[in-house]
Amino acid sequence: MIKFAQTLNMIKKNILSIFVALIIAYLSLANSDNFDKVSFFNFPGADKIIHSIMYFVFMSVIVFENRNNIGKVKILLLITLVPFLFGALMEVLQMFLTTSRTGSVADLLSNLAGILFSVALCLMIRPFRRHIIR
What we know:
- With 134 residues, the protein is an all-alpha fold.
- The protein has one domain (2-32, 44-133).
- It is 75% helix and 0% strand.
- The chain has six helices and no strands.
- The protein is globular and about 40 Å long.
């Protein structure tokens, strides 16, 4: 019973991260023909920028929701595995579950760029955040 309560509490604390992950899963696995109608994203490399932005937001939400539990840089870097592995899973699922999409190492690297940009921003803001709290 305690494990269930702890799990439920963890879900509540990370509900926004879970919501973002579900949106990313939908966008990653939906038929790509649904997105061809979005004309302002029709330029070379647009999908890589979108991947970076999605995973920047995902990592930023994770950091925000867990900001009181991230005391050390090692923990922050360990947390980067969550969106990175999720992105890797999405790329694998695209290969096997969809007909209009393909998994791509370039997409995974774009995801990683967004994640690392979020971490870098977090590390730059961190000293100011501590100063404001004291």
